[in-house]
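Please go through the sequence and C-alpha cells given here and tell me how the chain folds. Record follows.
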Amino acid sequence: MSIHLHRDLENLQRRVLSLASAVEQTVEKAIRALFDRDAWLARTLVESDTLIDLEENQIEEDCLKILALHQPVAVDLRRVASILKINTDLERMADLAVNIAERVVALAEGPEIPVPATFRNMTDVTNTMVRESLDAFVNLDGPLAKRVCRMDDEVDRCNREIIDFVSQFMKKSPENVDGGLQLFSAARHLERIADHATNIAEDVVYLVEGKIIRHHPEAIR
C-alpha cells in the first residue's frame, strides 16, 4: 500500500467513525425523547439532521476520490466499498431517528397514550444493534457482526406485537386513532433502524471475511 493511499484510508476511517458516533447519539436521543415525551429534544434533532447529511456527502466524495486516484485492490478495495455502503446506512438511520422525533412532537401535542412494554424491549434491542454493529466495524469483529444480524429477528417479533397492540387500541375509540398512528410510525422507523444496523453488520462480515452474507440466513448461525 502506498503512503498516500494509507493516509487517505486513515482519514476516511476517522470521518466515518465520527459520523457513526453522531448517528448513534441521534438514535439514542430520539428514543429518549419518545419515552419522555420531550418535544424540545425532538425538535433539536430535527434541526440537526442537515449536518449529518453534509458529512455523508463528503464521505461519499472521499470514497470516490480514493477509488479514482489509487485504484485500490483486495482488502483495501473491500474497505472502501464497505465504507460507501455503511455511510449510506448511517445517513438513513439518522433520517429515521429524525422521523421518530417528528412523531414525538405530534404525540406530545395530544393526549398521553399507553406504550406497551414490548416497545421498551424493541428500543433496547435496536439500540444494542446500532451500538454493536458500529463496534464490530471499529474492531473488525466478524462474530459480533453476525450476532447483530441474529438480533434482528427479535426486533421484527416486537414490531408485530406492537402493531397488534396499536390496532386494538385504535379500535376502542376514534380519538385513539391519531396517537395510535404516531406510535405505529415510530415503531416502524425503529424496525427500519434495526434493518440498517443489520446491513452494517453484514458489510463488516464482508470486510473481514470477504463473504457476502446478505440474503443467506444460514451464514449467520
About this structure: The chain has one domain: 3-220. The chain has a mean pLDDT of 92.
